[in-house]
Design brief:
homodimer, 181 residues, mainly alpha, 2 domains, two-stranded antiparallel sheet, 2 strands, globular, DNA-binding
Chain lengths: 181, 181
DNA sequence: CACAGATCGTTTCAAGTGAAACAAATAGCG
DNA sequence: CGCTATTTGTTTCACTTGAAACGATCTGTG
């Protein structure tokens, strides 16, 4: 029987959402920074300058969200946005002096919050926990690519590929049918 | 220095979101059920009938979201919604025959997905992981109530309480000032 | 060199979200 | 009792989200 309290996807979601909210309280009201904006700042904090696309890759946010977060930060004077001289599609995003100062104020708050949160665990437990997270992430990635394969074959969304696959199967290239079912 | 890849709030968020998305693929396309709707169904699966408020408490969703999920499920004939005879503010939400059948089809899919996901860990590791999650949840709850206290005193959001506190401080009851700063 | 396709970042649009206002019903207090 | 406060669930409204369309730029191939 499905017990929601012990159902891991549910537990992870509730925990992650609560963590995000509480952490955001450390900087949202004080600095007027949204969660996506904070992520952009955190990424630039360790590497500069970056293009929007670099930030998309590092942040796991979609490019629209990054675009909006960057626009807000540029508008408020925390980031400078220049066009890359060698490739005019690319931006060169970097902190202004104000942006750097902002990062220097928020980063310690975030790290301190994390430290207080993780004080619930001993160092050994912390290591164990992050190790288990690594494993789960890897498993998830593996399942995602399996699903991707199945997806191409079942084709709810990609009529083009589905038709080709169906044609192949009709043509007797039925090896894939077993995988599909 | 703040390394986003190892920053736990960030890792939890990315993992939880990916888990949700992948799990949702098990039922969204097949049954036209959204994530909030699935949560309502999962909760009713173990206890029936419930009021909207009961579902709010058990699901950690806000009442607007629950209201909309329930409305959708009622409209499509999966739930019956009656007024409670003893308290007409309360609803008595329960599966219809179709709703029960839907639950009986989705729940195994969800559990099976979880089983495949958790196959990344040994039983011992799984137990360790859920135990660590318990501890982190408890820590978060403790931090939330600490914050709640600080919040009432700093009062960004509650002008009423802030004004009272300010009046008290002006009146010389300044014991709280140290806490506030 | 031309041009078809890929890449980058922005914008649009429809859907989802949550805080707050709300109506209806009940509880509690004088 | 009568009236105020609280509880319950819905709706409104402003905002966020992400998929898709888009314009601009670059790349690769013939």
């Amino acid at each position: 029987m499905l017990e929601l309290d012990s159902f891991l996807p549910y537990r992870l979601n509730v925990l992650a959402k609560r963590v995000s909210r509480q952490l955001a309280r450390q900087y949202q009201d004080r600095f007027g920074i949204s969660i996506p904006e904070w992520r952009v700042i955190a990424i630039l904090g360790r590497e500069q300058p970056l293009s929007s696309n670099d930030i998309v890759e590092r942040s796991q946010m979609d490019k629209a969200k990054v675009s909006r977060a960057v626009a807000g930060l540029v508008e408020r004077g925390y980031l400078s946005r220049q066009v890359h001289p060698d490739d005019q599609r690319l931006l060169r995003l970097a902190f202004t002096a104000e942006g750097r100062a902002l990062y220097d104020r928020i980063a310690p708050l975030a790290l301190d919050w994390e430290r207080r949160f993780l004080a619930a665990l001993t160092p050994t437990e912390r290591a164990a926990f992050t190790g288990l997270l690594d494993r789960l992430e890897a498993r998830l990635a593996a399942m995602a690519s399996e699903d991707e394969t199945a997806y191409l074959l079942s084709g709810e969304a990609n009529a083009e590929r589905l038709r080709k696959a169906a044609a192949d199967m009709d043509a007797g290239k039925g090896i894939l049918r077993d995988i599909k079912d």
